[in-house]
Amino acid sequence: MKALYCQQNSSGEEMTFIFQERENLPPTGDNDVKVQVRACALSWIDTKLLSEVKLEKELLPVGREISGVVLEVGRKVSFFQPDDEVAGILPLDSEESGLCEVVLVHEHYLVHKPEKVCWVEAAGTVRDGVRAYTALHYLSQVSPGKTVLVMDGASPFGTIAIQLAQHRGAKVISTAYSLEDKQYLERLRPAVEARVIDVSNGKIDVAESCLEETGGLGVDIVVDAGVKLYSAEDESTSKSQLLPHKHDIITLLGVGGNWITTERNLQLDPPDSHSLFLKGATVSFLNEEIWNLSNIEQGKYLCILEDIMEKLSSSVFRPQLDEPIPLYEAKVSMEIVQKNQARKRQVIQF
Length: 350
Fold this sequence. Notes:
Elements: E1 2-8, E2 15-21, E3 32-41, H1 47-52, E4 59-61, E5 65-73, E6 85-89, E7 102-106, E8 110-112, H2 119-138, E9 147-150, H3 156-167, E10 171-176, H4 179-187, E11 195-198, H5 206-213, E12 219-223, H6 238-242, H7 246-252, E13 253-261, H8 270-279, E14 282-285, H9 290-293, H10 298-313, H11 330-338, E15 347-349
Parallel strand pairs: 9-10, 9-12, 10-11, 12-13, 13-14
Antiparallel strand pairs: 1-2, 1-4, 3-5, 3-7, 3-15, 5-6, 6-8
Helix pairs in contact: 2-3, 2-10, 5-7
């Protein structure tokens, strides 16, 4: 039985993905569930976070978002029984690679998968769903009448965030990084209610567009996809040229607004802080791994996973997925994902 692992080279930068032959699984523990994996989504491996929480090792298991069928349960397992269909995310410290035919998972990391939800959709949506709920439900309270700006709305996460915000009755503004992204967002059903801002040519001012859309009041919630921290000449990559400057975000944020950022190295100068103080606004950092780093909120986490499955089942969530990929192409696909070159969520189907 083979499983995919990531080997980090001594330089700390380059990664090699290798299939390792696995020995037989250890005996099923009291609270463990043995799952036959049917689909596994690929996500970028955050080696810096793993290093910071002392989980770095020579061989890192690859693939954490899984869906599959229960083969066997431990004697203390109360939520599942054999033949149940399940989905979930393996914890950060898991020794198991999701890209393996059979895995052992603690029952508190899984929920039941509705029958009408396919394996690929369940595995491909669960992480983006957790991110969207963390941003829009726990770090901010999205509700009817609020205006939400979702940056890079055509990304897998942006798509789910837009759908969750609109389902909660919010008015959504989104940015597109290319003409294809703009066309994709305009085809979304239900359609993006407010406005799609195409920033691909660099001539559109995001702050000005958002203030115009909100009658000068600003938006209530901003979910960014990264921000420029410095002036244009200090930024090197073409992707960063499309990102808004942190001052633009602060300008377009309304009174009492919430800025949810994915920028882990965000630096606010005193004038930035003063502007946020005058608006009574908050800045929150989006790290969806917090649910796995502490078990104190395990009940809420399972509620999120169950709600994601329910919204998939009722077609509230319609994820941005690529065509299912066979297992023998997993190494190549994971290399693309690790280089941040995949625009759609990559899912391996067994």
